[in-house]
Amino acid sequence: MRVLEGRWKLVLLFHLFGGKVLRFSELERQTPGISQKMLIQQLRQLEADGIVRRVVYQQIPPKVEYSLTEWGQALCPALDALVTWVESKPAGLENATDDN
Asked: What is the CATH number of the domain that holds 24?
């Protein structure tokens, strides 16, 4: 679970699902509210954990692309199930808390 900790990691993973390959600027544009520093940090952690692949093209201007590794892509069914679970929340429980 430590691999998925952080405010932005799940958002970034959802952007990369389905075999998508996105450049840094595309990820930044698709993730409003994230700073460049935080985006870099989250992507580096995902890369270090073996979930995201980073490919650097030696050209000017620099081009960097991100995609999910095979292991990262294996997360898709589990996260899809989580989204389905969240979407199935019964009406009226939006503000419910457990008082026990």
From this structure: 1.10.10.10
